[in-house]
Amino acid sequence: MSATIKDLANEVGVSESTVSRALNDYDDVNEKTRRKIVKVAERLNYKPNAIARGLARKKTNTIGLFLLGKIGEGHPFAMKLVAGVMNASRKSEYDILLFSETEVRSDSYIQRCQERSVDGAIILGIKSNDPHLEEIKNSDIPIILIDIPVSGKKTTYVSSHNVEGAYQAVKYLMNLGHQKVVFMNGHEHAPVSKERLQGYKLAHQDCKIKYNDQLVLNGKYERDIAYQRMKKFLSLNKDFTAVFAASDLMALGVMDALKEVNIKIPEEVSIIGFDDIELCTHTNPQLSTVKQKRFEMGQRAVIGLLEMIEEGSNSVEPVLLDYELVIRGSVQSN
Fold first, then answer.
1. Residues 21, 36 within the same domain
2. What is the DSSP string of 136-197?
3. Residue 300 belongs to a domain with what CATH number?
4. For all residues of the chain together, what is the average pLDDT?
5. Phi first, then psi: what are they for 158, rounded to 5°?
6. Which of 124, 174, 196, 303 has the fewest CB atoms within 10 Å around its CB?
């Protein structure tokens, strides 16, 4: 059993409050007494509990986790990422306080952090046109954004190499002989959409295939919208042999639309998604994809946040994680 403040007080011959004030650097404790208390604490291997330590340092050992938009509705992308956040925070003895979209709709994120006394926050699902983004950049509260390349006073981000991941996926299709690759992109307020579009364009450039913006659709990262957009596109144009989607959910929507009009996958159209959600291996055929390290993304977000919280440092360097092109049954040569 570890020593308590009472044990230290009895050993030194002072009150428990004196021990507590000495260990927390209050300046009204005699320096000689302080040194004696510290020496006894070291000898007895005294370790303050997390709550007491947090109160003394004006910390709550709590991280706010904001899940916004569709992400907060059980989105498949978020599941492993949240698991990574929970794993890393548990190891560091931090609690997680979950915020949903409805809780912050009328308030700023910083205001909610202050009201609930969190030490820092991780925000997932925020858009680049969010009215509170500038406030986040200038905040004194440590913030980690997921997939939003914004840095500020105590703000940084964790993301993947989106340009390179999209580039490799599209180039892979083109090397298989697919000259016309449809791109089902997300929405205009997601920086990852712009990055993956950039990768799509670079693949055209390197493979010396003319870029055609008529082959770029917008599925808003939703399966049903991607299905509707693909269905409309098919009514106007069937002159393509492959589809690259900026998310697996949209790729599944594309598959739904193709199957509805009896277009065979991959015999007639090959498909690659992005994320590697669990549903990829439960489709027929199984979906090829660009795998993001979502669990590690959550872990790295916590690690970066704690570096700012524990060390009092300003914004840490952004983290860009590697990807993996995973080829399954939804792709074949043209």
1. yes
2. HHT-SS-EEEES-----SSEEEEEE-HHHHHHHHHHHHHHTT---EEEEE--TT-HHHHHHH
3. 3.40.50.2300
4. 89
5. -125, 130
6. 303
- Are 196 and 79 in the same domain? no
Tokens of 206: 């390197």
Cβ burial 86-98 (10 Å sphere, 16+ → b, else e) = bebbeeeebebbe
The whole domain housing 21 covers 5-48
**Could you read off the pLDDT of 217-261 as tens digits, one per residue?**
999 999 999 999 999 999 998 899 999 999 999 999 999 999 999
Specify whether the CB–CB gap between 265 and 285 falls below 8 A: yes
The answer on 278 and 241 residing in a single domain is: yes
H-helix or E-strand containing 92? Answer: none
> Residue 107's pLDDT band (boundaries 50, 70, 90)?
low
The CATH number covering residue 42 comes to 1.10.260.40
CB atoms near residue 229 (< 10 Å): 21
**173 and 274 assigned to the same domain:** yes
Return d(Cα 326, Cα 334) in angstroms, integer: 19
281-305 confidence digits (pLDDT tens): 999 999 999 999 999 999 999 999 9
- Answer yes or no: is 327 within a domain: no
174 and 90 housed in the same domain: no
